Every structure is written in structure tokens, then in C-alpha cells.
Amino acid sequence: MAIIHPTSRLGLGIDAGGTQTRWALASADGTIVAEGHVGGLTALQMASETGRAAVHASFTALCAAVLAAGRPDAVCAGLTGFGGDSVQMAHWLATLLAIAPDAVTVRNDIEIACLDTFAPGHGYLVYAGTGSIAAWVDQHGQFQRAGGRGVLLDDGGGGYWIAREALRGIWRREDETPGAWRDSPLAQAVFAHVGGSDWAHSRQFMYGQDRGTIGRLALAVAASAEADPEARRILLDAGLELARLANAMVRRYGLRPVVLAGRAAELHPLLVQSMRAELPAHVPLQQKTVRSHHAAARIAAQARHFPFHRADNHHE
């Protein structure tokens, strides 16, 4: 951690996802001077009292860690599932950090990731984390998207989707041939992750855990890929799902480079290979590690506003 001069302007960047919430402090010249993480959260949790309490608890832990490093002058927060209502979350962050509410900006996490990847109008980002989405900030600064509709509806190719596909296949085989899991490296790895081979463990895992925790089961699928053809098929299919998102953007807006990012995209090379094969040969594809919390911190430190307007017909 860098030594922070007490008069230095600091911007706090937050990148909140279903699996992990990362934060960073940047100085006015863009240098990252501190960073850390707390548990995952999503804007979708704001729909219930329990969820709001969980978001506030996460913000409390995050702000305590931030203040131990330095007090920010402005905040730029990107949250997965964000649909436009930022008043309550901005108020919480401002109160916890003892800064003015109008110094806090809350956006969708993918919007910040786009700006960290391409200048407006230059390319498409396909992001595969717990969920999945393709996005583009066009030459007029307008945010466009495909996918990102949530794990219950779609989000094909994301970690949650991979986990669900694995458990679905395992239990369908158990319906037909009880005990088949003993001959499946994938099933053995999945059951070890969820805590047991009986249905009660899988049921509790899928219906009693948050989506980020479920998404981490994709790690067990990827770890089984060398030994289990079903695990390989799931990862290949995940690549096809992510290619579908990229192809949708190309069809709608024209040929541009595509960047693939996100933790699920890094699970196994098969996923990227499958995506590449499904894209037109003339569409450039690059894999990148996006540090959205760094980008958000620099935006906050420089007191810049996002150069786009919402396209409401494409948002959640």
C-alpha cells in the first residue's frame, strides 16, 4: 500500500459482483494507492428488506477498510444488476464515508468495465462472471447491451449457468441410473464441492445459497475437464453462449473487435477456444483481465462523469 499524503485527492472505485466486491483508492494522477475486497453483493438485493440489510452490511465492511487507508473525496461504484435507482445506496456510501451524497455515483458494473476496455465506439466487451453480458459504449456515448438478463432467465456461459448445467446433468443421470455419479469425475468433484452426494446437499446448495456462491461451483466443473467429457461439453457450450452475445452485437452494430473478460472466462481454455470457433473469422477476439475497480477509482479521482446515456429499452 502506498503512503497517502493527507492533502491528496482520492477517488474510491467499487466493483460489486455476485461473487466478490472489490474496491480501490486512486490519487488524482491515476495511481492506485490501496485496494481490497469484501463479499459479493448485487443491486438486485435492494428489492427485499433482507437483501438491503446485506448490502448495507457489505458497504459498512468495505467503507471501514477504505477509511483505514484514506478518506475518498468522491466515489464511483459499479454494481451488477443495477437498474437506475441509486439514491439509497449512494446515501449509505456517503454516510459511511462522511462525504457529500452528490460525490457518489452509482452505475452498472459493466458500464465501467466497457470504459476500461475500449474508447467509446471502438469495440465490444463480453463479460462472463457469475452471469454474462455483452456491451458497447457507442461513438455517441450511449450504452448498448445484449444479455445480462439475470441467472434465472438466461446469463448463458456465466459461472451460475455452468454450475446449473453440471448439476442438472448429474441428477438426470441419477434419475435414470442411481449411483452413476461414482463413475463420473465431474459428479464426484461437484458433490465434494456441495458437501455430499445425496439430493439434500444439492438442493440446499442450489436453493439456499446466493448466486455468487453457486457460481463458484463452476470451478469444480473446470477442474474436471481433463478427466470428464461431460465437463468439457459444458465448457464448450459456455463458449458458444458467450459467442452468441458477441455475434448479436456484431449483427446489430457492425464489425468491431471483441474482448472477453471475467472470472468465468478464465476457468478453462476450452471456453475461449469454443467462443473463437463460433465467431466469424474476421472478428478479432482478445481475452483480458478487466480491473473495473481501478477504472472506477480513477474516474472518481478525476471527478469525471461517464460519457454515455442510458438506453432504457435494453436495461433491466
Descriptors:
43% helix, disordered C terminus, 5-stranded mixed beta sheet, 2 domains, 18% strand, Nucleotidyltransferase, domain 5, 316 residues, alpha/beta
Structural description of this entry:
The protein has 316 residues and is α/β, with parallel strands linked by helices. The chain has two domains: 1-117 and 290-315, 2-Layer Sandwich (Nucleotidyltransferase, domain 5), CATH 3.30.420; 159-288, Nucleotidyltransferase, domain 5, CATH 3.30.420. It has eleven helices and ten strands. The chain has helices at 49-69, 87-97, 109-117, 159-176, 185-194, 199-208, 211-215, 218-223, 229-253, 269-278, 292-301; strands at residues 10-16, 20-27, 32-39, 74-79, 104-108, 124-128, 132-137, 143-147, 258-261, 285-287. The strands form two sheets. A five-stranded mixed sheet has the order 3-2-1-4-5. A hairpin with a 5-residue loop joins strand 7 and strand 8. The two termini are 37 Å apart. Mean pLDDT is 89; it is low at 304-316.
